[in-house]
Amino acid sequence: MIPEIGHFALVLAFAVSICLAVFPLYGYLTSQDGFCATAKPLALMQGLALAVAFGVLMYGFLAHDFSVKYVADNSNLDLPWHFRMSAVWGAHEGSLLLWALILAFWGVAVALFSRGIPDHMSALVLSVMGMISVGFLAFMLFTSNPFVRILPFAPGNGADLNPLLQDPGLIFHPPMLYMGYVGLSVAFAFAMASLISGQLDATWARWSRPWTTVAWAFLTLGIALGSWWAYYELGWGGWWFWDPVENASLIPWLVATALMHSLAVTEKRGLFRSWTLLLAIAAFSLSLLGTFLVRSGVLTSVHAFANDPERGVFILGFLVIVIGGSLTLYALRAGKVSEPGEFGWISRESFLLFNNLVLTVMAVSVLLGTLYPLLVDAVGGGKVSVGPPFFNAVFVPLTAILISGMAFGPLAKWRQSDDPKLYRPLIITLIVSVLVGLGWPSLLAGSYSISTAIGVTMALWLAIATVVDFKKKVGLYGGLTTTLARVEKGMIGMWFAHFGLAVMILGVVMVENHTEHRDLRMGVGDAQRLGNYNVRMTDLAVINGPNYVADQATFEIYEDDQLFKTVTPQKRRYDASGMVMTEASIDSGLMRDLYIAMGEPLGDGDWAVRLSVKPFVDWIWAGAFLMGLGGFISIMDRRYRQKLEVKKDEASGEEAPA
Amino acid sequence: MNPKRKQRLLIILGLVSGLGIAVGLVMYALSQNINLFFTPTQIAKGEAPSAQMIRVGGMVADGTVDRDPQSLKVAFDVTDFDHNVRVTYEGILPDLFREGQGVVVQGRIHSGQFVASEVLAKHDENYMPPEVTEALRQSGKLDQMMGGQK
Asked: Quick check: A300 and B34 CB within 8 A?
């Protein structure tokens, strides 16, 4: 009975989403305020219905209702309760339900926090979001219903959740990532609403800016969490694999980053209007493309599971409608967009244009590399794959180009900024970063690495330039506390994000160039040298977990003959599925991680063992965390919560964040 | 031409040529870095180039996995049930590597043997990498395989 309530709520949400897609738009086109006014209540109702559906599915997992096929496929009596909760989005149907719930959540947020926006505008925005919702709910109801039941003979026990997913990573990574993916729909909806209404001045940029920033921040954290999860759970110590599905999240991230920066120009200076609209369309379309790639199984990927081709066709059709429809509307209206104002060749605008160009090229390159195997296959060129060498060859130099500009941009002024005095602090920045960068590799063991020198120089260049900009603002405002209180929050957010990127780059450079890594055969009593440590295997045991049996090795790590730490990596075999999983032991530290994992038994009590020292690896995620934090700080700005004022001429622009 | 128009024209020209160069370089990098896929039958017929990085997919043939007792060296046959390819590898095999499971190996052919630098087996037991499905379809053994597995 209870699953039927969830099913009913899902159908109800579908019906409500159709109303939401149609009524406000109809009201707008026929100038009937009554119809426009239905938008907010409908958005709230849709959110409520989906929350009920989601709650029912979660109840099914918690109460072991194996008559629900989705629960039976992805849960088990022995599965701990917190994994049963996250198992709700552990497979296809449930993750779509989470997608739809988060889309509805963003709709509710727009309905509640759009008081400063004219009613017809918020009605249009919610209507566009309703249309997206119709597509996803139809997809779910017709191809992927999570409430399908196995009756009358429900199984007594479930097949268990994929052991890879039995990890706290599943609790946080997908919801965060979806908040980002789906959050980009708000920027998309604002862009569409302004195209429909023809109100193509810069005001829509101001409205959609905080939404874009917060979606970007979630996306940043979501990707970083996924990378961290891969590192300790399934990646054998790698942190990024250029897997198609990783790329599918990176591409919208790159475009959203460009969008955030171009929105700044559009809001502050009224420039780049049509370009910003195009980016808003592209960012969300690419996150839909990502969903398609993940869900259709057309690409070989760790995220791809056995799939139904019918689903791929449905999403592809939806993708064509969304992208085709939005681009058609854009083509019809973009000609009417005026671009008032001008800017000098060296100005904050020109640096942001440069930023947008580089980020777009990055996104296009990753997209080409990801889709290339599909394109070749489609024209009958056989099966090919594109590996990390391609992505590294393209991505690394582009990042270097991007960073070289990131030092200048924040120091530049709007309109015209060719006074060399402005950039003078960068001379010292350059000298310090080059000297330290060149010296850095000689402090490390092994031969001198020129790529480390370049990478460290880049990271320092960006970090020091960010600090220089910060100190300059403190000087202008006359004190740290006044600065923090009076400067736009977006500026503080930018400092965090840019500094975070520098931290991340340092981590990437060190891990990629200086990881010490060995695969060995080891038995009890064997010892190995690893960096400054001695690692000795002292014991092998069999451990019984709640729903698995594990072979567990005990390793003692010695530093200068002193016992530093004892770790116990495991090789688990899960009872229900028979799947084998590696649980690595990681000793994390500021300067390095020690990584020990068990491979496979080799007979005679020996095991294949992987030992690694990964310098600065945690800096990668710390940097990403700072970037996400920067995004959240930006939206705290009081400006965004004030009633919409008549837009003042903000020509001075000195305090504007970029 | 007024200066604003001129600036816009220059920017657009710059963007277009910049993007053109970028796409050109990307396509060049792509052509240098793709790994072609071959089936065991194609390799047995000598259709695969030697000393170039390629991928091979199929099933790990039963009873062919040999381990070196001293090191992490391992050798096994990858089969599409028409032909086998002997693969050698040194390193840790993925958790789901087993006889009778689908794998994709990446590496080079050296004097008749396939030396793998990477062995990929998927994380979901029911999931078959598309390349392996393709290899089995070409050898006409897909139905038999699917019937046998489930």
From this structure: no
